[in-house]
């Protein structure tokens, strides 16, 4: 099985000024494409060759895990963005209030977690089997699927995600992320 690059649900320039076309050309078009290409090369003639990517993430180690997880993580991240400013849907707002005190408290805690994650990695909003939400910082290619959790949202805090637009200003990148976060998609993932 060949794993394709996930398609973007928006044009490369449509997230500007929060995320530039140039960032997407490099982050999506080059970084993600490299992970996809590496994954497809690494799994040839292995037990992972015909395995769904989620199962590869749950079971693989080393280079196969890293490239599978980075392929999936990036696809999930890019699918979590929208060019259209959104209000938080009522059911999601209620879930965030039940788990974090308020949607604003969730954004603040998630943002602080992203700001203070040392080095490269991802910050996730994930749900357990009972629907309880938690914020999970993961280094490198980490993914909550390995813990049996359901990903709802992720933020890429590798420098390549923001260096073109924000240089070393991770805090500015995190603030901009909330301007293009797809709250409806988060609600669909949580309750779908």
Q: Your description of this structure?
A:
By secondary structure, the chain is mainly alpha-helical. The protein has two domains: 21-79, Helix Hairpins (Orthogonal Bundle), CATH 1.10.287; 90-191, Iron/manganese superoxide dismutase, C-terminal domain (minor pseudopilin epsh fold). It has eight helices and three strands. Strands 2-1-3 form a three-stranded antiparallel beta sheet, with helices on both faces. The longest helix has 22 residues, at 21-42. The radius of gyration is 16 Å and the shape is globular.
Key words describing this protein structure:
mainly alpha, 50% helix, 8 helices, globular, 2 domains, three-stranded antiparallel beta sheet, single chain, minor pseudopilin epsh fold, Helix Hairpins, 192 residues
CATH superfamily of the largest domain: Iron/manganese superoxide dismutase, C-terminal domain
Strand order of the largest sheet: 2-1-3
Strand content: 5-15%
What is the CATH-assigned architecture of the largest domain? 3-Layer(bab) Sandwich
Structural class: mainly alpha
CATH topology of the largest domain: minor pseudopilin epsh fold
Which blocks of ≥5 consecutive residues have pLDDT under 50?
none
Overall mean pLDDT stands at 98
Largest sheet: 3 strands, antiparallel
Radius of gyration: 16 Å
Number of helices: 8
Helix content: 40-55%
Distance between the termini: 27 Å
| Tally of distinct domains | 2
According to DSSP, the number of beta strands is: 3
Shape: globular
Per CATH, the class of the largest domain reads Alpha Beta
- Helix-strand topology string: HHHHHEEEHHH
